[in-house]
Amino acid sequence: MPRKQDDVYGDHISHRFNDELTELKSRFLEMGGMVETQIERAIQSLVDGDSQVADEVRANDRTVDRMEMDLDEEAILIIARRQPAARDLRLVISVIKMVADLERVGDEAKKIAKMAIKLIEEGQAPRGYVEIRHIASHVQGMLHDALDAFARLDSEQALRIMKADKQVDEEYQAAARALLTFMMEDTRNISRCMSVMWVLRALERVGDHACNIAENVIFMVKGEDVRHTSMEEAERVVGG
Q: At what angle do helices 86-122 and 51-82 cross, to 10 degrees?
């Protein structure tokens, strides 16, 4: 079983430093929860044809942006005040990187909401909604599991998320090919089908960002960077 996060990052002589790290982690997870909700509601607005929900998602993107800026500032202040080393420095640096991924997930939610409004105005596309629901469910699960892996410092779960990203890529490519074929057969639906294509692309990017978060969790726990490495090498790092 992985060690609990507080067991690893909560043993400093300075109680104030412990509190600062705990606050940083808590605020990161709060932002993660906000972004999860943004993706969920963006998909809801698309499937239900609800422009009010879509408008709310677009408006709430400003809150996500503010969370990113606040967390970046908090992390930089910890580095300046505490000059953390080793595992603590890995935590703070990883949070800065993962916050950027969460902000970009928020951007993808905003794009989906924008496409939802466009489709509400033009009329639903004749194809692609089944694929949207399927891929959305997959990447939402990845994002949730990535945040959970961070909360519990679970490198094995993080590795599973990295493996799941390949499946999302394959599902996206298959859905895109099917949609392109449909558009070639009936050009009257090109505009609406392109909106669906952009939604599928946005969801695929959410999976990529969840994978990036998982890679940073492994870095935090194991102290080795598994970006741009083979899956075999990542498995070695996690298993070692």
A: 160
Q: Where are the domains of the chain?
A: 5-239
Amino acid sitting at position 92: V
Which among 107, 41, 28, 7 is positioned nearest to 72, based on CA atoms? Answer: 28
The pTM of this model reads: 0.92
Alpha helices in 49-85 (DSSP H): 51-82
Q: Among the CATH numbers 3.40.50.1820, 3.30.360.10, 1.20.58.220, 1.10.3720.10, which is that of 5-239?
A: 1.20.58.220
Q: Tens digit of pLDDT for each residue in 218-229? A: 999 999 999 999
Cβ proximity of 150 and 217 under 8 Å = yes
If you average pLDDT over residues 92-105, what whole number do you get? 97
d(CA 40, CA 55): 14
Distance of CA 16 to the CA centre of its chain: 30
